[in-house]
Amino acid sequence: MTYAPVISPDSARHQGNQSVTDMTTDCFNPTSQMATYNPDHGKYMPCCLLYRGDITASEASKATNTLTNLSNVHFVEWCPKRYKIGLNSSRPCVITGKLSHDKLPKSICVLANTTAFKDTWVQLGKKFKMMYNRRAFVHWYTGEGLEESEFDDALDTLSQLITDYEEAEGEDQQGGEDEQEVKEHQEIC
């Protein structure tokens, strides 16, 4: 998930008038994303772009066309519809307190799924397996009625999710998978 523009209330008057294309491009900048992963290690699947404020459909369409032509934003090829666009003519909501964004004329929130997130799932699986092998905190869950077999099911589900991400990305690639990725995935399984 990303949101733009993220600016201080004091600078909202002069920085809040970014173009729709600039705001949209900012949302695909790795420094603007609200999850830790490297987007260069994967491809985006269809994204939802939610615009608020004084934005026309033609401006949103122009912004998505610009994204399609950027060299650092890659999409899976098996899905022809890359974007779902939502337009809301209301200005961005006011956040009470110190951070008041009532001065912003427009904003964008992007909800995106990317195969690059598989690296995060691999790391999560490693940590989960390490803690589960030591039975760390297991007693808290079993004490509440969870069976230990459900931990194995969760690990299998995570492994399947990683495989699904690899397959989604692999359908676009001619070559084989990176040996390190295969090794890390096998460690989880």
UniProtKB/TrEMBL annotation:
It comes from the Eukaryota. The keyword Hydrolase applies. The keyword Nucleotide-binding applies. One of its GO terms (biological process) is microtubule-based process. Keywords: GTP-binding, Hydrolase, Microtubule, Nucleotide-binding. Residues 166-181 have a biased composition (Acidic residues). SUPFAM superfamilies: Tubulin C-terminal domain-like. Belongs to the tubulin family. This is Tubulin/FtsZ 2-layer sandwich domain-containing protein.
